[in-house]
Amino acid sequence: MIEFHNAGYGYGGRELLTEMTLSLAPGSFHFLTGPSGAGKTTFLKLCYRELQATAGRVSILGQDTREMGRDEVAQLRRKIGVVHQDCQFLDHLSLAENVALPLTVADRPRDDQDLVDLLAWVGLTEQIKAKPPELSGGERQRAALARAVIMSPDVILADEPTGNVDWEMSLRLLQLLVELNRMGKTVVIATHDMHLIRQAKSQVQARVLRISNRRIQQSGADL
Ligand SMILES: Nc1ncnc2c1ncn2[C@@H]1O[C@H](COP(=O)(O)OP(=O)(O)OP(=O)(O)O)[C@@H](O)[C@H]1O
């Protein structure tokens, strides 16, 4: 699904990540962890071709990212849902309109019942008409998750999805991501939260990728 072949990345010629060889199999569930500044967000950006490897090769859904043109990148992005660390919304649009925005941008028809069902799934039925500034941190995170999955992507990449929420909300978000994985989606969650990783143990066969000293180490066994 996503393959790194001796890949590396550096900003401004300074190597941040090096010699990454790994494969994220379809339907797998991974946590990505490591100290602040280790390169977790950078790694995720390589996974959806926001960045291109500066060494080696990354393939996403069978395509070598070096050989992709603009249209192919746009196609690819529809198959990968990203929950960004700082989840930005358009404040003048309602929650429902924000969540449906990827459909609008891709010029795809919007099924209002699907949208209502999706918002119910993330527990935001009552906030459907609310504007983003009226939402709590946990509500924003769940809205960001809904927006990431509205195009039915094959892969969900979540960057610190539980960063600013309490433990109960973290568990709820984890539950949603586990449900997506049970539906066959490949899930990668970048997190510092070791409690969350331990908690996942009882729910899903997750693997841990740890960035340390510029390299990615994979825990060999399931959690
Ligand atoms: N656009 C950029 N230009 C230059 N350096 C950058 C850029 N983006 C990130 N960096 C640097 O790369 C390093 C890794 O950043 P990254 O955001 O990938 O780390 P992270 O592991 O996600 O951190 P955190 O856990 O704090 O979110 C940091 O030192 C950061 O300052």
UniProtKB/TrEMBL annotation:
Keywords of the record: ATP-binding, Cell cycle, Cell division, Nucleotide-binding
Key word Ion transport present: no
GO biological process: cell division
Pfam family, one: ABC_tran
InterPro entries named in the record: AAA+_ATPase, ABC_transporter-like_ATP-bd, ABC_transporter-like_CS, ABC_transpr_LolD-like, P-loop_NTPase
One cellular-component annotation, GO: plasma membrane
Domain ABC transporter: 2-223
One annotated GO molecular function: ATP hydrolysis activity
SUPFAM superfamilies according to UniProt: P-loop containing nucleoside triphosphate hydrolases
Protein name: Cell division ATP-binding protein FtsE
Species of the source: Celeribacter baekdonensis B30
